[in-house]
What we know:
Layout: H1 6-13, H2 31-39, H3 50-54, H4 68-79, H5 85-100, H6 115-125, H7 127-136, H8 140-153, H9 157-167
Amino acid sequence: MTNRLELVELEIQRHKWSDMLCGCGESAAHVPALLLELAGQAEEGGGIDYDGVARHVVSPASMFLEVAPPVVSVGMAVLASETPVYARYAYLQMVLFLLSAEGQAQVPALEGRDVAAECEAEARRGLWTLYSEVLAGGSIDTAGYAYEILTLIEEDEDRLERLQAAAGERLPWDLRS
């Protein structure tokens, strides 16, 4: 039997979290444990929650921090894994928030970087995973968040319109064609 969070663990291990600044103002060395716990979360209120992780990813002013792109890539690994619906929902919500946020924290480590573009690139690497999430029918909320992310990163408008039509009632009413 395989570990259902193995992909998530592999993606977390790719990054040097201790070299990054966290939203709490400390080193991001503690973020991997939070991300892994959230990835395994079966229901809201069962331990760490979205807000508990999100405050480590963005600053209080909703500005990007250097941990944001790795968190988006971990989110894509969560979607590619057999994770509980709540975990998928929480990660999709976080990725959508990151892709919708504006501004970048003014810290020396980010000088010369476009963290928003890096987040978008990470999400694009998981494009087909997002399409799959919309059509999977697991949850109308996860389908809606995945679709909203696609509206931000998908460059092929025709494909996006076809997805919207195919998804039909799997999307929240306000996202249907």
